[in-house]
Design a protein that fits this description.
It is built from six helices and ten strands; from the N terminus they run βαβββαββαβαβββαα. By secondary structure, it is an alpha/beta fold.
Length: 236
């Protein structure tokens, strides 16, 4: 089960939902009282986001899919998943979260800025510390440090020893803190001139749902290979 927020003009949202229906065994949808909306521009320094409209909250508790879910990946884009909704996932065997949507400034009409880890708040950190996997990008954690290794250390200090941690670093691969060690994994190959929108979400989904009989390091290597293949399809 993946809990995501889909934002954008109504026709685009409906198209995204239709695509998800072709990919998912089951799909539940619910309207928030407002839709999060971003504008973005790709620059030499990376993608710059501007929050046009802050969205409402998403509900997870009460979902019919929770009873049968073996894995849940929570992927907020603008802090729309509350602490209470996260706590509703306690019984799910494997829980993963992408931290991006909680580490963004949410001032409407302003450029999005990365927030320090302490902005998550002690209650949310305590709940996320009981998850199995947490994923963030180097851009998400720039308020901590520009160095992904220090970012990993900061995140580990905040959430404790429970979850495995991944910091993605674009074309430089990812950093993994799991099983009592820290490792850097390079990308299998570089793919140029392709949109990377959603690449981090795809990576996290394959990390969370990969073969549990293999190590997280092997799942990460497989996930990066799959992401590279998807980017190559986009370029084609």
């Amino acid at each position: 089960m993946t809990v995501i927020s889909v934002a954008g003009p109504e026709p685009e949202v409906q198209a995204a939902l239709e695509e998800m229906r072709t990919l998912a065994a089951a799909l539940e949808t619910a309207d928030a009282h407002a839709t999060a909306s971003f504008s973005h521009a790709d620059t030499a320094k990376g993608r710059r986001l501007r929050l046009e409209r802050r969205g409402g909250r998403l509900r997870i508790a009460g979902s019919a899919l929770l009873a049968s879910a073996a894995t849940v990946l929570v992927a907020p884009v603008a802090g729309e998943v509350s602490i209470e909704e996260l706590a509703a996932l306690e019984a799910v065997p494997f829980r993963a979260a992408i931290l991006q949507g909680w580490l963004r400034s949410l001032e409407e009409g302003a450029e999005v800025r990365p927030l320090p880890i302490h902005s998550l708040g002690s209650e949310r950190v305590a709940v996320l510390g009981r998850f199995d996997l947490l994923v963030a990008s180097r851009e998400d954690l720039l308020a901590e440090s520009p160095d992904p290794r220090e970012q990993l250390r900061s995140l580990r200090r905040a959430v404790g020893n429970g979850p495995a941690l991944v910091v993605t670093d674009g074309a430089d691969g990812l950093w993994l803190d799991a099983e009592a060690s820290t490792r850097h994994l390079p990308v299998p190959r570089s793919v140029a001139a392709a949109s990377t929108v959603g690449a981090g979400d795809i990576l996290a989904a394959f990390l969370a749902t990969g073969d549990s009989a293999t190590t997280l390091e092997h799942r990460a290597a497989d996930a990066m290979r799959i992401v590279a293949e998807i980017l190559e399809e986009r370029r084609a």
